[in-house]
Amino acid sequence: MTYLGYTEEQIDVAGADAFNYQGVGNPFRHANIQPGDRVMDVGSGLGIDSLIAAHHAGPDGKVIGIDISQKEVDHAQARADDRGLDIRFSVNDMENIPLPDNCLDVIISNGAFCLAPNKEKAFAELYRVLKPGGRIAVCTTTIRSEKLEKSVEFPICMRMFAPMNELEPLCKRVGFVDIVIDDSDSKMTYELPEELLELNPDRNRVHVGGQEFEHLEEYDMDDLCARVCVVAHKPRQDHQNKSSPDQSSSCAF
């Protein structure tokens, strides 16, 4: 988490749960969560980013997390309950979010969009549930080129990554403005400390445990892929729905 730019304060908030961290970046560099904000964590996993979001939103704010894994939702809910936090996790699909239009201030996501089957539909759902003026910070992994080589066998997860140059046009089509594709911390590789490598030498290998993807060790993943954060706002005057900030809906959290 330190490598990804989480602050000492945020890591302290995660506490022992930091060992369950899942993610590809740090959405908090751009989310700018304020006290009282209503926040949704899409693909909340074991709930680490949701815990940090709740810290920033404070007692007057509200955080919900959605994920497709019942097991991870149950784990995250139990951890939030143990901490006495009013966070609600539920099993839901990012392409069909069960919330009314115009009801959230901030949406964060950390890795879930890598595997979204229909990325434009998923971003459109984020747009729909955001209040006018609301913002997203979506960390995801992308492909640097338009397509991967067809003659090379890549894992299905890599084949589902969006080409980086398609993200901004996609967000524009949905209706977002002030779009930034932040690739300032895009490297896929990370030099692990020697003590970790001594404990587990395979930690720096791709798809450990099978021979199917051994050929990928010849590739430079920093040339193929990039970690980015998609940052954007919903216009304060939503021309698609003719709504303005004072017409925001009440979320049934």
Main sheet record: 8 strands, mixed
- Mean pLDDT, all residues: 88
Residues in helices, as a percent range: 25-40%
Rounded to an integer, what's the Rg over CA atoms?
Answer: 18 Å
Determine the structural class based on helices, strands and strand pairing: alpha/beta
SSE order? HHEHEHEEHEHEHEHHE
Unreliable residue stretches: none
**Portion in strands:** 15-25%
- The number of strands is 8
User: What form results from the Cα inertia axes?
Assistant: globular
Number of helices: 9
What distance separates the N and C termini?
Answer: 29 Å
Description:
The structure is a single chain. This protein is α/β, with parallel strands linked by helices and 253 residues long. 28% of the residues lie in helices and 21% in strands. The chain has helices spanning 8-14, 28-31, 48-57, 70-82, 119-129, 156-159, 164-174, 194-199, 221-224; strands spanning 38-42, 62-67, 87-91, 104-110, 130-143, 162-163, 177-182, 225-233. The mean pLDDT is 88.
